[in-house]
Automatic annotation (TrEMBL):
InterPro entries: CsiV. The keyword Signal applies. It comes from the Bacteria. This is Peptidoglycan-binding protein CsiV. Residues 1-18 form the signal peptide. Keywords: Signal.
Length: 256
């Protein structure tokens, strides 16, 4: 009987533990700095973020499946922080959202596909290359159904989950126009129709031709990766930093 009492107490407590709810509020902003002027060494290209299990905030069926409820603006608690960022010339708020979710672990908690900021699809292709004049003419004549998908300034995924502690797992790409140098194929001088050497004279080939490689600067859309995992405490406000952007996260336990 003494053994059964702790087991019964545990069974009674389990439903209430499973019903824990958290209000999560997130602000994402970028910094008004030139990425190429920072001390960081940025790769020209990055691997695509795996979005297979992610869904956008506006996917109602996904939210229902994951037990997520979007919160109205009247329940936001970080409006003062947003206003301070908006009043500062060095920052631009890209996203401010809040939602309620349960205390699921990493394999069950919702993974949100984050898309925000400027849409670059009118100027750049998905691979970052510029849309040339010919492509622009084609795009103007295509039907609405085949218009290229938006190419947002901020794109990636965000997950908040519970495994003994609260965790934030973030993978985001901040996209911005950049310039890279492209070297064209070097011109090789031709030896066709040259007179053969006579009387031990040296025939010098190509001295009058410019064989210096041609270098062009090409504009392209570069992705700067934000990849962080942070352990958090509820009721505390956490700041995730990056040379080009920042994220403010607050997780509030819901009193039931």
């Amino acid at each position: 009987m003494k053994t059964l009492i702790p087991l019964l107490l545990m069974l009674v407590a389990m439903p209430s533990m499973a019903q824990r709810q958290f209000d999560i509020e997130v602000i994402i902003f970028n910094r008004a700095v030139d990425a190429e002027q920072t001390d960081e060494s940025w790769p020209t290209s990055v691997a695509e973020i795996d979005l297979e299990k992610a869904a956008p905030f506006n996917d109602a069926s996904y939210r229902a499946k994951k037990g997520v409820q979007m919160l109205p603006a009247s329940e936001y608690a970080l409006n003062d922080e947003v206003n301070k960022l908006k009043q500062h010339a060095g920052f631009k708020v890209l996203m401010h959202k809040a939602w309620r979710q349960g205390d699921q672990g990493r394999f069950a908690a919702p993974v949100f596909h984050v898309q925000a900021g400027r849409d670059y699809s009118g100027k750049f292709n998905p691979d970052g290359s510029m849309i040339n004049a010919q492509q622009s003419q084609i795009l103007e004549g295509i039907t609405e159904q085949s218009i290229p998908k938006p190419l947002y300034q901020l794109d990636g995924k965000l997950q908040i989950y519970v495994e003994h502690y609260l965790y934030a797992d973030v993978q985001l790409d901040l996209k911005a126009p950049s310039v890279k140098e492209v070297t064209l194929e070097q011109h090789q001088p031709t030896t066709d129709n040259l007179e053969p050497a006579v009387d031990n004279q040296v025939v010098q080939v190509g001295l009058m031709e410019d064989i210096t490689p041609t270098v062009h600067k090409v504009e392209f859309l570069k992705s700067y990766r934000f990849d962080q995992k942070r352990r958090m405490r509820s009721t505390e406000t956490h700041f995730l930093d990056h040379p080009l952007m920042g994220m403010i996260i607050q997780v509030r336990r819901v009193n039931q």
